[in-house]
Every structure is written in structure tokens, then in C-alpha cells.
Design brief:
The structure is a single chain. By secondary structure, the chain is an alpha+beta fold. The protein is 35% helix and 13% strand. Strand 1 and strand 2 form a beta hairpin.
């Protein structure tokens, strides 16, 4: 679930301060392999539901190329 959806479900305002705070907390759990996994940027899942960490990053073909 995306961080904005989680904040909405918690009844919190979707602002930078709340996003940064919650991402930090959930990210800490996911790095330790406890309860949550980070399935995509700013997206978290529950380990018990079988949601695995995403190691793949999809970048656009133009990523890192300078415009002419």
C-alpha cells in the first residue's frame, strides 16, 4: 500500500511531515525484516501476507541521459 493511502486510512493528513515520519518508521521495520516489507518506493506490504521486498527498480529509458 502506498504511503499516502496508509496515511489516509489512519485518518492523518497527507503532508510532507506525516509522510517522512511514517516512511521512516515503516522503513526501519522493513530493513530489520520485521512485520513490513518495502515493495516499491513509498510502498509497504506485510511480510505475513507474503509480500516480498522489491529489488528491481524500473527506470525510464531516458534516465541518466542528457537532453539535447
Amino acid at each position: 500500500m502506498h504511503i499516502n493511502d496508509i496515511l489516509t486510512q489512519l485518518g492523518k493528513t497527507v503532508d510532507n511531515q506525516n509522510r517522512v515520519s511514517l516512511v521512516g518508521t515503516l522503513g526501519s521495520y522493513s530493513r530489520k525484516g520485521r512485520v513490513f516489507s518495502r515493495t516499491a518506493p513509498n510502498t509497504f506490504g506485510l511480510i505475513e501476507l507474503g509480500q516480498k521486498e522489491s529489488t528491481e527498480v524500473d527506470l525510464p529509458e531516458t534516465f541518466g541521459k542528457m537532453e539535447q
